[in-house]
Amino acid sequence: MTETQGGSPSRRALLGWGGAGLALGAAVAGGAVAMAEAGDDLDPAADAGGAVEFHGAHQAGIATPVQDRLHFAAFDVKTDDRDAFVQLLKDWTAAARRMTAGKAVGEGAYGGLAEAPPDDTGEALGLKPNRLTLTLGFGPSLFERFGLADRRPAALADLPRFPGDNLDRSRTGGDLCVQACADDPQVAVHAIRNLARIGFGTVAIRWSQLGFGKTSSTTPDAQTPRNLMGFKDGTRNIAGTETGRLKKYVWVEESDTDARSAWMTGGSYLVARRIRMNIETWDRTSLQEQEDVFGRDKREGAPVGKAKEHDAPFLKAMKPDAHVRLAHPDSNDGVTILRRGYSFTDGTDGLGRLDAGLFFLAYQRDVRKGFIPLQRRLSAKDALNEYIQHVGSAVFAVPPGVRDSHDWWGRTLFSEEA
Amino acid sequence: MRAVRLTATAATAVAALTALSACTAKSDAKDGDAIQVTAADSTCDTSATSAPAGQVTLKIENKGSRATEVEILFPDDRIVSEKENIGPGTKYTLTAEVKAGSYEIACRPGMKGHGVRQKLTVTGAGASSKRDPKLDQAVAGYRQYAQDQADDTVPLAQKFADAIKAGDLEAAKKAYSPSRIGWERTEPVAESFGDIDPKTDTRADGLEKGQKWTGWHRLEKALWQDKKIGAEEKTLADQLVSDLKDWQRRVGKAEITPTSMANGAKELLDEVATGKVTGEEDRYSHTDLADFKANVEGAQQAYELLKPVASKNDPALTKELDQQFTALNGVLAKYRTGKASSDFVSYDKVTKDQRKELSDSVNALAEPLSKLAAAVVK
């Protein structure tokens, strides 16, 4: 059941597919893109629960075809020792390299000294890699530490307070974040749990969010998954294969940067929002109003007056406050973001209502030109606002990818070497 | 089984042997011979330094002016067998089944402290595996600590009980938390006996079906929530003291190993993480932080005793542990209201954010502490 590689038990065992996925990813720089080319549902590595290449010019988990499950964690830094924090980034990189390849952390989950707790917590033993990606980001507050004040990019802007925001401090902010996506929930949870454990004493989890269903697709031609309101949203999302649009809207170019932010070349900026839906009142809303609110039909997800979800919308046919009309790039001077959100349900709220909604994740080249103008518009006018409330918020600078087995997360920020 | 009595053991005979060997008697006891132990106020003379494995007999005479206690001890000071309260001028014969190995005979004049020691080598087959004297020293040091905590606790518990029996609600409330400190510092030792902890430290939610609720937390509820002292509480106060005396008597016989010390330290932090940080432990009195501090102190004591060995095997770990103990103690210090062990802010005044900070600091220490046992046995 287990293969031993580098002296440690492997989760990948059983399957030839894991290795195949790895090879496929490794064959092309940026395994995510390679996977996308194979197509989401058709991808053999995905079918077999294979691995997504961890190394690349960009971090995996952005353009990678969206996995089914999410565990997202925001952390606070608990040390003033820069060396200790850099060591953590290196330790995390090593653990992430192993976990994304389907291997157990450190010396594994069994077989070590009986007197010591095992390095790996063990709940992912026997599970395939399930396309696990781990994506690291740095929050604005990190730059108040470790003498990083002059390295904070202007594009990592603090989000203003938007109308209707009801942010819970305990679900907002964070010095850094890790987004874990996988096709198996236990693989994603295992990854965050083990990173948190490695981090004790250096970082502490500030908040975390589980997402059980993807609401976006980064795969062309695939059906857009429905959100908890029963609608498809963001049907014209950027696909992992659209190199041109990724370059234009997602990846930070060298020309975007200055002395402060040169380290971000190849990175991206992430906005995370916990959007609670008033599920019960939405469910009592007439079909007509529901469709008017979104500006789509419920069956196909087609824009008003169109037949298919991917048909180009005719915005003027929609109500002025329809969600699609307000969010569309044509209404926002072309503003486009890469969406990667997940539905969540965290049980009920004590009043018998589902504590559920959308954990919105969006990647962009500059927060000031992406989420901020878009949300200004939506928060002011969107008909959907009657049924939703933004209750958590965070923004992160997501550094470029870990290039190879010697590289580590955040090296370009913390090290002077090129 | 091979007991044969050595009867030539009058004090005079001992004196003769002493004279021959120019110091305390240093002959080997023959198979089954009894060993003469002559205890005085500052001496502990034995007629033999070795004996064959099997039944070992001590013929004890107290020639001192105070009551004494005589024990056969393992190298880590765990008691093989003992006799307490041997009055001045009285004699007692102590027999014990002893396996091959190194032991000490201890006389404790006044029944306190380290006592006066004599070596005893028990020869024969089945000698136990090689022992590490540094680890034996660590265990012995910890046992002494645990004993000291028990010895200090009993009078404090008596004070608590006396206040309850006098019906003095305020005095009882004041005496509650101090009476728990020694217990909380060494809880893993107390818990190792199995039957004492359920009687003294069970919380309302921890009761099993049919179990009568006794001990500190039952009294805590009476004092803070019900705000009254009845006949039942007075009885329970006496019972608490008598259960704690039972604990005090048994500390010397507790099975303590270097691994159990290290794991005990981690378990104390587990106690903090699951019971104190949440405010569940002292839910009526909100004196959780005093227990919290005591748990950390007990863990630190065990750690400091193991550190000489652990720092050799894993210097990075001990460096980390030193840092994290300092950090957690620093956070706790912010909540001090006075110098006494129990002088802390009431836990219901500690905000959610502050609890998060405490919890993070506990996790920061507990994670590396979970690696201490491995560093000790490595």
From TrEMBL, chain A:
The gene is efeB. This is Deferrochelatase. Belongs to the DyP-type peroxidase family. Residues 59-212 form the Dyp-type peroxidase N-terminal domain. GO terms for molecular function: lyase activity. Coiled coil: none annotated. Pfam families: Dyp_perox_C, Dyp_perox_N. Binds 1 heme b (iron(II)-protoporphyrin IX) group non-covalently per subunit. Its cofactor is heme b. Residues 224-402 form the Dyp-type peroxidase C-terminal domain. It is an enzyme of class 1 (oxidoreductase). Its main location: other. It comes from Streptomyces pyxinicus. It is found in: Cell envelope. Keywords: Heme, Iron, Lyase, Metal-binding, Oxidoreductase, Peroxidase, Signal. Its EC number is 1.11.1.-. It catalyses: heme b + 2 H(+) = protoporphyrin IX + Fe(2+). Involved in the recovery of exogenous heme iron. Extracts iron from heme while preserving the protoporphyrin ring intact.
From TrEMBL, chain B:
Residues 138-372 form the Imelysin-like domain. Residues 1-21 form the signal peptide. Residues 14-115 form the EfeO-type cupredoxin-like domain. It comes from the Bacteria. Its main location: periplasm. It is found in: Periplasm. Belongs to the EfeM/EfeO family. This is EfeM/EfeO family lipoprotein. It comes from Streptomyces pyxinicus.
